[in-house]
Amino acid sequence: MISFNPLFSYMKTNNITMYKLIKLNIITATESTRVRCDHNFRLSFINRLCHELNCEPSDLIEFIPDKKQ
Tens digits of per-residue pLDDT, 32-59? Predict the structure, then answer.
C-alpha cells in the first residue's frame, strides 16, 4: 500500500495546511480527500506536488507492505 503519511509530516514541519494547498491551487478539494484516504494517484500528481513543494517523492509517500492473510 502507498501511504501519504510522509506528506502529512512534511506539511506539519513546514506549517502547510490542506486548506493552503487548495487555496493556492496546488491540489483540488477532491485530491485532498483522496490523499487523506490513501487512494491511488497518477505520477503526474506526485510530480506536481514535488514541484510545488520543492521536495522529493519520498517526502510525500511511502510503501507499506500488505499483511499476508
Answer: 999 999 888 889 999 999 999 999 999 9
